[in-house]
Structures are given as structure tokens and as C-alpha cells.
Amino acid sequence: MKRFYQTAGLATDLSGIAVTLDGKRVKTPLGKALLLPSESLAAAIAEEWDRQGEQIKPSTMKLMQLACTARDRVEDDRTSLILELVNFGRSDLLCYRALHPRDLAERQALGWQPLLDWAAFEQGIALAVTEGILPVPQPAESLAALERKLASYDDWTLAALLALVPSLGSVILALAVTDGLIDADRAFDLSQLDETFQAERWGADEEAVTRRTGLRHEIHAAARYLKLIRAA
Length: 232
Hints:
Layout: E1 8-13, E2 16-21, E3 24-25, H1 39-51, H2 62-89, E4 96-97, H3 102-123, E5 130-131, H4 140-151, H5 155-168, H6 171-178, H7 184-191, H8 193-202, H9 206-229
Parallel strand pairs: 4-5
Antiparallel strand pairs: 1-2, 2-3
Helix pairs in contact: 2-4, 2-5, 5-6, 5-9, 6-7, 7-9
């Protein structure tokens, strides 16, 4: 799409905070009013619009995408999206440890187990751990606790989780970022333990580097969005 506006700005009134393009309020792809939870997020989204060149590239507007997800997807379909995230808990990355080499298994245990312990003791989400790739059943009560935890978040936060969980391959890592236990860089590093180990041994190919760069960008964008929606 060609750029059709000159400047992006903000509009604030009793209805809330909105981004404007040449004075007209931005709407979501489904035509909903994009009223935002904080002026900080609105300003950052306006900056995304301002940075566009002659052609508008939605892929470079991560904050706008996340905000629209909250309004267009989460608001209308919370229950099924929460269950979609719960399903990641059934096969969470942190629960599957290497059989060998032992130094990789030790690296996984050192990095992953403290977060699983936090989820178990602080959140009631006690997930079973196994060695190898064969599926391990997860306790029904733990999955129920995970569902309750996810349901406690508002729509804006759930939108971030919908981006973080698949990017990290772990709902536990995503919860740790969301609750401020770890930052985006730490989460990315922990999600990539296996890939980093293999790259250290055999070297990384260009395709893998590109993929990892994209994942890091997605994780950082979602983490930034979380900070912005909570900003005063």
C-alpha cells in the first residue's frame, strides 16, 4: 500500500487514546476503533506510522500488529485463544531434555529448571520433565492452573503472549517474560539453547542465523509492547 498520509499523531478524549493519520483516527483491520491502554503505546505506534516510507510495510509495525491482535482477535475469542496457549504447555520446550551429550543436558537443566520451579511453586503450574522427544503427559491440575493464569491477563497482555509463546516454543518462558522474571534477551537465549549448542560445535548456517534474528526481533517487540501497555 502506498503511503496516503503526511503525519501521524495522537488524539485523547473521554473515549480513550488513539493514533491519528492526518487527524483521522486509525482503525483495526476489522474496522474497530483502536483505543489504546497507554499514551506510551499510542506514541510508539504513531512513530511506527511516521517511519514508513513511500510504501507502507505492516511487517515493520510490530506494535501496531500486537495492538490490533488484542482488539480484533483476543477481544472476540479469548477462550479459544487461551486454550490454544494452554496446549503449548502440553509440550513445552523446557520439559524435553537431551539424552546426550551430557553437557547440553546440564546446560538445559541449569537454564530451564529454575523457571519450571518458579512456575510450579509460585503459579501452581507443575509440569513433568522427560529425556528425549517422546511426549510426556502433563498433570490435568497443572494445565488447569495454567489456564487460570492465562485467564487472569487482560486482552492486551494476551496479545503479547500470542506472539511470545510460539516464538519461544515455551509458555513458561513467555510467562516469565510477561511477569518480569526474565528479560527478552534471556528468554531468547534460553529458547535457543539447543541451536546455540549445535552452532558452537558445527557452526551456524546463514538460514539459521536469519531465522534466529527474526525470532529475536519478534521477542523483543512483544517485550517492548508489554512495557508500553503498562507505562503510566
